[in-house]
Amino acid sequence: MRWTLKQGRYLVVALTLSLNLLVGWTQSITWLGPIGRDYSAGMDVSDDGRVVIGSTGSPFTPFRASLWTRCEGLRYLDPSSEGSEAFAASADGTVIVGKFVDSMGRLRAFRWDANSGIVNLGTLGGTNSVALDVSADGNVIVGYAATAREQRRAVRWVNGMIDDLGLGDNSFAFGVSSDGRFVVGYVTNAQGESMAFRWDAQTRIWEYLSFRYAYRISADGTTVVGWHLTGLGYFRARRWYNGSSQSLGTLGGNESRALGVSRRGNIVVGWAHDANNGRRAFRWTTTTGMQDLNTVYANLLTDGSVLLSANSISPNGRFIVGEGFNAATNRYEAFLLDTGALKGDVNGDGIVDDQDLLMVLFSFGQSSSPTLRWLGTLGGNMSIANSISADGRVVVGYAEDSLLIPRAYRWENGTMLALPSDGISSSAFDISGDGVVAVGADDTARACRWVNDQLEYIHSTESVAICVSQDGHSIGYWWRNPLGETWYWDSLLWRADGSGGYMGALGSQGAQVWDITSVSSDIDVAVGASRDNLDRLRAFRWVSERGGAATMTDIGTLGGSDSVASGISANASVIVGGSFNPNWEWHAFRWENGRMEDIHTLSEWSSSYAYGVSADGKVVVGGLTGDGVSHAFRWTRNRGMEDLNPVYASLLTDGSVLSWATATSQNGRYIVGYGYNASSGLSMEAFLLDTLPCPPLPGDVNGDGVVDDEDLLIVLFDFGTPGG
Which of 292, 333, 402, 673 is the most buried (most CB within 10 A)? Predict the structure, then answer.
C-alpha cells in the first residue's frame, strides 16, 4: 500500500487525538503519607519514579528510614532501626544510603539493599559517619566520617571500602555523579568559611567552585547546585556550570536552596521563600527561570495543600519528590510529583530512543495477571484471614489445628504458623502496616499482642484486642465491664508509651471499637459502634488529641435506626461499615467529610457490609449476602461495587467461591478473606487475592496493566527527545 499525503495527515490527526486522551494521567501528585506518624519527607526518587526513599517520624519519636514503592506503598527500611534517615538511592532504587544509630548509640553511615539489609559502612577510626549520596549503580557512596581525633572528613566508599578524599578536616561530601567519578561538597577553613568543591576520582584533584555549599551534581558531572551566602547573610540557591556560577534567585523572599539537579543540569529543584517569606518548592530551568511548583501544578493540589520543598528530581526531569502539607489529612507528608515530562522514557536513561521502543514492542500484547492463593489451615477444616500487612506479605487470622481447635496464625511466604498462647484456642484480628505487631485474644479471656511472634498480654481480664494502628503503637480493645448486675463491653485504647484508657460511649451501654488509626504521634482516631440513649446501635468516630479532651461522635445512618463502623482509612478521612436504610435493608456505607454514602448492593443480593478500606479511602471491600449465600465484593469510585467472583472467575476452580473480603492492603492491591475452595474441599478457607502483580510489565508505560497502542503512542510522540 502506498501512503498519500492526505492519509498521512489523517494519521497525524488520529495520533494527536490519541495523545490528547493520554494527557490526563501524565501529571499527578501522590502524597506518600507517614507510617502512622505526623511527618514524612521524600529525599530521592528512582529514575523510573517507582521508588521513593526518605524518612518518617515526629518530634516525639525517633525518625526511621522509609521506602515507598508503587507496588507496596510506604514501609520502614528496617523496622528495628530507630534514629535512621535515608538520603539517596541508586538509579533503580535497589541500593539506599543514609545514617542510623547502631546498638552502641553511634551515628553510622549505612548501605541498604533487599538482600543484605542495613550494612554499617564504618568510619576513619572515629565515632560517627553519614552517607549522603550514591552513584547510579550503587557501588560508589559519598559522605563524611570521623577520624580517630573525631574530625570529620569527606569520604567515599567504593564497593564497601572507605576512601579519604584528602581534603582535610571539616570537609563534607554531599553529591556524586552518576558514574561515581565526580564528588561535590564543601570544606570549612580555620576562619569558619565554607567553600564548595568538585573532586575528580581519576586525578584525585579538587577544584574550588565560586560559591559556599555544593549539595548535588548532575549525572553527567557538568553541573553543580547548592547555595551561597549573600552579603546580608541570606542563603541563595546557586548553579555552577562550565567554570562559572549563577544565583537562581528566590520567589520574592529572602532565601533559597538548590537541592536537586537533572541529568544534564538544565533543571534544578529546591525550596525558596515567597514574598511572605513562606517556604515553597521550586523548579528552575534554563528557559523558564525559577517557578513556584504550587503555581505551576495548582490544579493538582487540594485546597490548602502546599509543596514546601523539592528535595530531588529524576535524571530525566519527570519526577520530583519532597515534602509538603497535605490538607486532606492535615499532615506534613512526602510527595511524588509526576510532571508528565518525557513520559516515553521507559528505561529512565534520559532520552526516548530505540531501547524504549523495543521495550514496548517486545512486551506488546502482554498483560499483568492477578493471582489467588488459598492459605490452607493448621491441620483442621477451616481458616479465616482477618488482616494483611501494607506490602501484602503477612496475613493474620485464625485456623483450626489437627484437633479442630481454632488457633491464631501468621501466614508469610507461603507458610502458616500458629502464634503462641497461654490458652488453648486463640485468634488474631489485626496486624500493623509493617507486619510486626499482631493483636487478638485467647481463651484465657485476655487481650494480647504478638510482637515479632512474641506473646504479650495487655489486659488482665475479660478482654479482646481487636485492632492496631498502622505503626503498631496504638491498640483498640474491648473489656467486659461488670456495671452493677449487667455486663457490657467497653472500648479502651492501649498505647505503647503507657498512655491510653477508657474511650467513652454514646450512651450508657458501652461501646465496641472495630478499627483504629494513629494519624500522628499526638492524635488517634478510632471507629466502631455504641448503643445510644435510645438503645440504637450507632456507628461512631472517636478522636483523641493527647493533652486534650477525647470526643466520640455519632456519624449517623443511611436513614434507618442502626449503623456499625468497621474500618477507617490510614489518613483517617474515610470510614466504612454497614447501616439500615429507610426500607430496613442493611447496606454497606462509605463516610467522608461528614456525609454517609450508600454504596448499595448488587441486584441479586439483599444486603451488603463493608469491612476494610485502603489507606486513601478509594478501595472498599466486604461481603454481599442473600438467601443464605455470601460473595466478596470490592467497591471503587470509578467502577462502583463489583462481585469479586465474576471479576476473577479465571482464578477460581470449578465451584470455588470468594465468600467474604475482610481487609485490603493500604494501597488496595491485596484483598484477604475466606471462601469455599473446591480443590481442598474446605467450605471456609482463608484466601489472599493479588489484584495487580508488581512490578508492572517493562513496556507498560501508562501502568494500566496491558502493553498496547497507548504505550506505543507515548514512546513515538516523545521519540528522540532528550530530558533534563
Answer: 673
